[in-house]
Amino acid sequence: MEIKIKLNGRQVAASVEPDMLLIDFLRKQGCVSVKCGCETTNCGLCTVLMDEVPVLSCAVLAARADGHSIFTLEGLREEASEFVGFIADQGADQCGFCNPGFVMNTIALLRENPDPTDDEIRAYLAGNLCRCSGYDGQLRGIRTFLESRRGKA
Amino acid sequence: MLTIRNYVKAKSLEEAYELNQMKTNRILGGMMWLRMMHLNVGTAIDLCDLGLNTIEETDDEIILGAMVTLRQLELSACLNTYTHGAVADAVRDIVGVQFRNTATLGGSIFGRYGFSDVLTVFLALDTEVELFKAGRVPLAEFAAMKKDRDLLVRLIVKKKPLQAAYLSMRGSRTDFPILTCGVSRIDGVYRASIGARPGPAVVVEDETGLLAGEITEESAAAFGEYVAETIRTGTNLRGSAAYRKHLTKVLTARGVLEAAAQ
Ligand SMILES: Cc1cc2nc3c(=O)[nH]c(=O)nc-3n(C[C@H](O)[C@H](O)[C@H](O)COP(=O)(O)OP(=O)(O)OC[C@H]3O[C@@H](n4cnc5c(N)ncnc54)[C@H](O)[C@@H]3O)c2cc1C
Ligand code: FES
Ligand code: FES
Q1: pTM to 2 decimals?
Q2: Residues with CB under 6 A from ligand 3
Q3: How far is it, in rounded angstroms, from Cα B121 to Cα B106?
């Protein structure tokens, strides 16, 4: 079947199988930041923004995304660059595999709630699993980013 | 693995219902559960274009479409004002925000999953299910019905005077629950709904009037004891039958005290 998706701001038309998952479609389109980290719909690594809302692309059919807007990390580098350095400075990333999902969902968090408390950060990012870290580095990184932004304001 | 031969965005409820009569066809809610099944689907029937993703409030009801997401339930002001936040408490630990943005109310209720926080909290309220063919059915009746090929269209919550609380026990924050517990007082009568027994949630009312008088730690504990004695619990890898009985007592009593303080 034919679908049209606005991918990272650009119209893309393609022919897909009815059961093609959005994650596989996106990777075929060259968005390889979108990765699959589990078979149980609960690691958060495949997070993309669908009409601005973070969703798990491993559980959305490409067919359902027809007519919608999808953003992956490839289209949001600039927005991500504002805070990823703060997380890296805390040494939060070990193997780094969880990073793209983490960054995508942090973008969604900060758009929805520009000045979250620690508990709000924890609650929003609870669906992003990291095998290496204890999540504290990421939390510290986001906190220092928010503090530095507040300082500038 | 889930395979799908055809994909249809249904244009009407009739079309969705008719397609769903074929055994090999399947309704798609959020697909979060479906995608983990080993299933060859003939036609996947998507309800996403039928306007079933709204929450409406009237003077005496809150009407929830089947395609309302768990995240919408969590953030709904009218639903959470009415339930004192019990609905948000029930869904906030389900996997993660991204998951809740697509998992649906309809799929959660239709599935009648034993572990369901969603089923548990709505059973604690005065809720009806609207089915395409069978019409309105009390949720408790629906929960006990065998799965058929009807279409779940809406959930209707009756806005009777309510005090309510929701608690669950989990090994870790976003894991499946070991026990779920909704407590409410509707029209002056307390009830508890207990799920993840590990079977689907069931409701126990305060039929003997243990909470008819003053609510104290003692009377709340007595009701917890009564609920634990009344329901059946079982053992699985998450917990034993005895542990679940114990949790039932404790969570029910805490729920009563929380609701009574509202
Ligand atoms: C990893 C994981 C962890 C989870 N943890 C929890 C948890 O802790 N607590 C909890 O409460 N839940 C949990 N769930 C369940 C989840 O919240 C949903 O209840 C579940 O995914 C079903 O919702 P869905 O929208 O994905 O439905 P789907 O998977 O799309 O559908 C489920 C079933 O319902 C049918 N169906 C869907 N909508 C309708 C309709 N309108 N009419 C008729 N039939 C319909 C489908 O055909 C299918 O058979 C978890 C699920 C997963 C995958
Ligand atoms: S790949 Fe793990 S949630 Fe999508
Ligand atoms: S850094 Fe390795 S999974 Fe997160």
Answers
A1: 0.97
A2: A 93-98, 130-133
A3: 14
